[in-house]
Design a protein that fits this description.
Layout: H1 2-18, H2 20-26, E1 35-47, E2 54-66, E3 69-82, E4 86-101, E5 110-122, E6 127-139, E7 144-157, E8 160-174
Length: 175
């Protein structure tokens, strides 16, 4: 059943990408750049890590296949400070996914939703694994967005598996 669903999802994404050139011209995407760079900064907390403030930062490249949908490829750094020890868990991630945008509902105000998956490596434990990021927010201008971010990092240890879960506020800049 999983293989069938994976095959159907892959087929849907392939057809979507194949027809993206038609959609781009038809929907009048001339005012939106086809390729965009972005910087994302976040502050929050890692669940189940005893510490103070957590932080996230990343750079991403977005290739818009439609005025409202784009492929999103980037690298993230997620970290957390620990009481009386300094910096604790520090994860570097490589992620790829999709980012959607709603039509503007007032001037440049528009909603945004993104999902990215990939691989991350923790420098403290020297372990790595599957990484997932989900974000939801709003464009305040065509270049500045704010929102909520959830980032999860799986780690594989000899004695079992572990996870870091980061919840935070995100400030993003798009160029």
């Amino acid at each position: 059943m999983r293989r069938w669903l994976s095959l159907c999802l892959g087929l849907l994404l392939s057809v979507t990408a194949a027809f993206s050139q038609q959609w781009w011209g038809y929907d009048g995407g001339a005012d939106l750049k086809r390729s965009q760079w972005g910087i994302d900064l976040g502050v929050g907390k890692m669940k189940d890590v005893q510490g103070n403030v957590g932080f996230a930062g990343g750079i991403r490249y977005q290739y818009n296949i439609h005025p409202l949908i784009g492929w999103d490829l980037g690298a993230n750094y997620v970290g957390q400070t620990i009481d009386h020890e300094g910096i604790g868990p520090s994860v570097l991630q490589g992620l790829i996914g999709l980012r959607g945008r709603t039509p503007s509902f007032y001037q440049d105000l528009a909603g945004t939703l993104g999902v990215r998956m990939g691989y991350g490596h923790d420098f403290e434990t020297k372990e790595g694994g599957f990484a997932l990021e989900m974000n939801v927010g709003m464009y305040l201008t065509s270049h500045v967005m704010i929102g909520y971010v959830y980032n999860m990092q799986n780690l594989k240890f000899e004695i079992g598996d572990g996870k870091y879960k980061f919840h935070g506020f995100r400030l993003g800049f798009v160029f």
